[in-house]
Amino acid sequence: MPLIRATGVVDDPWRFVKDEEPLPDTGAVIVTLVRFQANRDQLLARATPLGLRLKSDQAPSLIAGDNERFDIIALEFPKFTDGRAYSAARLLRERFGYRGELRAVGNVLRDQLAFMRRCGFDSYEIRDGVDAAAWITALGGISVVYQPATDGRASALALRHGIGRNHRDAETTGKVDDSTPRLPIG
Amino acid sequence: MYRYDDYDHTLVDERVEQFRDQVRRRVAGELSDDEFKPLRLMNGLYLQLHAYMLRIAVPYGTLSSEQLRKLAHIARRYDKGYGHFTTRQNLQFNWIRLEDTPDILAELATVEMHAIQTSGNCIRNVTADHFAGVAADEIEDPRIYCEIIRQWSTFHPEFSFLPRKFKIAVTGAPHDRAAVKVHDIGLRMHRNEAGEIGFEVLVGGGQGRTPVIAKSIRPFLPKRHLLSYLEAILRIYNQLGRRDNLYKARIKILVDSVGADRFTQLVEEEWQEIRDGYLDLPAAEIERIRAHFSPPPYEALADSADYAAQLRRDFLFARWARTNVVRHKRPGYAVVTLSLKPTGGVPGDATDAQMDAVADLADRYGFGEVRVSHEQNLVLPDVEQGDLYELWRKLEELGLATANIGLAGDIIACPGLDYCALANARSIPVAQQISKHFGDLTKLLDIGELKIKISGCINACGHHHVGHIGILGVDKHGSEFYQITLGGSADENASLGDIVGPSFGADRVVDAVETIIDTYLHVRQDNERFLDTYRRVGLKPFKEKLYAAH
Hints:
The complex is a heterodimer. By secondary structure, chain A is an alpha/beta fold. Chain A has one domain (3-141): TIM Barrel, CATH 3.20.20. Chain A has helices spanning 33-38, 40-45, 84-95, 113-118, 132-138, 156-160, 170-173, and strands at residues 3-5, 8-10, 15-16, 29-32, 50-54, 72-77, 101-106, 123-125. In chain A, a hairpin with a 2-residue loop joins strand 1 (3-5) and strand 2. Chain B folds into four domains: 6-62 and 90-110, no CATH class; 134-292, 2-Layer Sandwich (Sulfite Reductase Hemoprotein, domain 1); 305-398, Sulfite Reductase Hemoprotein, domain 2; 412-547, 2-Layer Sandwich (Sulfite Reductase Hemoprotein, domain 1). Chain B is built from 18 helices and 21 strands. The longest helix of chain B is centred in the first third of the chain and has 22 residues, at 6-27. The A-B interface holds A 59, 80-84, 86-88, 90, 95, 109, 111-112, 114-116, 118-119, 141-149, 156-157, 159-161, 163, 165-169, 173, 175-177, 180 and B 5, 7-8, 10-11, 14-15, 18, 22, 35, 38-39, 42, 121, 151-162, 224, 227, 235, 238-239, 243, 273, 276-282, 284-285, 288.
């Protein structure tokens, strides 16, 4: 399956290892939450890059303490109508400070890409046989956004009032922007 | 009313082009029907029994005369010369060709309208009191906050694939005309002890298969926290709402299953994490939007002596004014409801000619604004009392002056099996029969306030659960039957109707309604309303009469 980022079609160095498959000794692997929880210490001790794949009913809070140990987290869309991974992505990025690659896998459709990107995803496994260039263009979505999200784009509201991405002037709240990682989206 | 700035225009224009490309891909066969379905549903386009139906958003029920003229034009050019105003204050066209939809949306965009999120499992068009801004009892215009919610919820990246559709309603007055207690989120504006205006937050109300009155989860939310609090509720729902069963996916089921207290706790915990952050509403934005809803240039008028004299002189005019005219917050002005419920007509339908004429009347007798009520009528919000007589004569000619607002003829009905792919039974002919049967306006006035609401299936688009008399179409061995409920209400004292007993065949519904009304007239005390009588005497006398002979 092709893998895209906003910059184009990219090679995929990762291999997803299903629970019933043996773990290879070398190479970058993505494992399930079940395997990770069963062999946590062993997996973290490996010298090779480690990734995690979460199903849509597996809350990111389950790995909140460990998320910095992963170079990639893949969030599954079992059906495009199952929107839980959008919340999971935002929580990983904004609540738990996850800065690694966040990949959308499963039933990933062209017309949902822009939403995914806004929630903090930065790579997307797409189906074979499509016009990847059109899909990459679709990542841009509509040029105006009405609400702040994980991607750091300034909302129409913020632009109207010249307050950057914040809805309130950060000086008056003393909170917000710097506590939220500015993500290199791409 | 709200006018788009460059940001709003850009968003809607780009959306039209995006949808045009999606339709092109569908027509070219690049997208299968299954793949196209979620895309059209993000844009209010349904495939019904006979044709595509396009549902156009009328944000919080407010239209300009220019917008209404555009809708008339679309009805004429792309449909069969009429449109249907819905219980969600929207407008539906029932005979649309797929290929025309991009052009229709492009035409709508020129008058700052769209069909975004009028379907799909996302946050739908936000609804409000149809008398917003002019009601004598109003604390603050709820449309300011509806517009803020409209923008925040439009293409919300996290909440566009919720477990199920999500409806938010806002009332700014103590008398709830927006039915906030039967919405996924209801917001009720009120003053706290310090005199500040904020929102009571109600969650988990709804109709459909499992009707529930919303639970209050926060007595007072300051305005600046509106969006962060909504985001907290939606995030909990998006993560925990059921996705395995279509019928158990609404937020009301989640609130019920974890309990209102636990649900409140989850929301409050989530909110603590995101409050005072980038969703905080700046006062400058509230003021920017408020300016769009500032009062029009009213004349300093006293209550009209001519109007008082006309009421005494003309019985028919007085009868119309009694039901279809309510007090305005300004002296000398009135709020007029145009009945889309002519005797024997289809509730909520308006022809292109009527829409054009109403747009002209809104310019002539007001400030070019029209409202759509969730009870499927239109409203002219700013009529000078001295003009009411002349306006009434014109409305009579247009068939829009039926003096039945709030009475038994003012029936809410969903499109039913005449159009809808989900329906079990027809709604419109039942509404028409009842309307004809009780066509005598004098009799209607004697019966008094009575809300009859008809749904063609359990999804309850016709709000039958909250009808004083609710009628639900069911399929019994391939025949249309109707189950009747009594005692429902959607206002600040909301209640769900009680089922009277076994359902009635299509040929017996009108008789049953008549029996119910006769029973009421027999047992009511003084000027007691139907609902009050029902609440006093309960089901028993009605049940006895209805099933006496069987």
